[in-house]
Inverse folding.
């Protein structure tokens, strides 16, 4: 959730570095102290002797992370207590859906497909809008999010992956621990990801660095806007409060856990119709497809990370890809990397 420093675990080597690729991983830095023994895909990941953050920085990281994670839960509890027997109003439902789509697409179309994997080029204004919307999801600032996700692709399900469910091995107890860690535990871990190594392109973009610094204000706006919208539409402070609860806090919590489920469940459950790199167990999990806005077609995504569409087969609904298609027709998205039938055919897993 906080900006990582160059001295972090995965710090950039001295000298100029190429822009990281989501497909070909950079060599694992020696500073991670990961043993040179090849990972067998079954054993727990070797322990990493990470340079400790300064005490004050580590404490701040934990406090901020706890606030961002527990605040939506508090909102749900408040809704249950205050609104018991009253139900949820139409205004709250519509505002909740609206803000879920805005912030969710900010993450899936913006943070993920545009900024992390460069599946398309966004016009400058659209680029800023996507970064603003994604930042209001409470999932971290844009540069931290991109850096962490690029690192995840570089080391998927092997030592170096920041949130693999196989971190503690493949036994029943290890899988349960790994599932919890991949879902939310990794956020609290002292395992920083270097911006300089994994997101030098965004660091060189003044607009993105300004938006990353503005992350706390954008989180506040993510709650203030539903409150003001509820006040305007309902005309009462109670209407403003319920909109804050449902379209603000509950919406944030739902989106967070859907995103984290792609990290955890989509590496444990589902089908794998496409080949991925060794040890990468990313899978397609159809029950999450709609609510994740197409992100749970995860196997296809890991097979071809720069593709703008993740749901490429029949009946695989991908709202994020449809959004990109609309943006392309208006000329706001260009150089879109749509699926190539020949490329897909070569990646089909004939044993699936």
């Amino acid at each position: 959730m906080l900006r990582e420093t160059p001295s972090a675990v995965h710090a950039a080597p001295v000298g100029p570095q190429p822009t990281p690729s989501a497909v070909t991983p950079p060599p694992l830095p020696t500073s991670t102290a990961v043993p040179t023994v090849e990972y067998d895909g079954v054993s727990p990941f070797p322990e990493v002797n990470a340079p400790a953050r300064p005490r004050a920085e580590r404490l701040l990281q934990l406090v901020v992370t706890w606030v961002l994670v527990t605040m939506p839960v508090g909102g749900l509890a408040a809704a249950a207590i205050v609104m018991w027997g009253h139900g949820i109003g139409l205004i709250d439902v519509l505002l909740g859906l609206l803000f879920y789509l805005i912030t969710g697409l900010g993450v899936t179309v913006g943070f993920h497909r545009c900024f992390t994997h460069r599946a398309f080029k966004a016009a400058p204004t659209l680029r800023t809008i996507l970064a603003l919307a994604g930042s209001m999801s409470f999932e971290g600032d844009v540069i931290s999010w991109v850096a962490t996700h690029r690192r995840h692709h570089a080391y998927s399900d092997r030592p170096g992956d920041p949130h693999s469910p196989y971190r503690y091995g493949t036994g029943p107890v290890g899988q349960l621990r790994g599932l919890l860690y991949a879902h939310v535990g990794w956020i609290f871990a002292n395992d920083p990801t270097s911006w300089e190594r994994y997101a030098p392109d965004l660091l060189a973009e003044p607009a993105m660095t300004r938006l990353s610094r503005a992350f706390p204000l954008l989180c506040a706006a993510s709650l203030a806007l539903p409150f003001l919208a509820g006040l305007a539409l309902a005309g009462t402070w109670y209407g403003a409060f319920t909109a804050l609860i449902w379209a603000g806090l509950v919406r944030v919590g739902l989106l967070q856990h859907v995103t984290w489920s792609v990290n955890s469940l989509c590496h444990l459950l589902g089908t794998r119709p496409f080949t991925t790199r060794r040890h990468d167990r990313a899978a397609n999990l159809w029950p999450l497809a709609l609510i994740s806005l197409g992100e749970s077609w995860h196997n296809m995504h890991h097979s071809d990370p720069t593709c703008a569409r993740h749901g490429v087969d029949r009946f695989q609904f991908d709202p994020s890809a449809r959004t990109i298609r609309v943006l392309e027709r208006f000329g706001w998205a260009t150089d879109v990397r749509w699926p190539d039938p020949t490329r897909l055919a070569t990646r089909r897993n004939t044993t699936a």
Q: What stands out?
A: The longest helix spans residues 55-82. The beta strands are 121-122, 333-334.
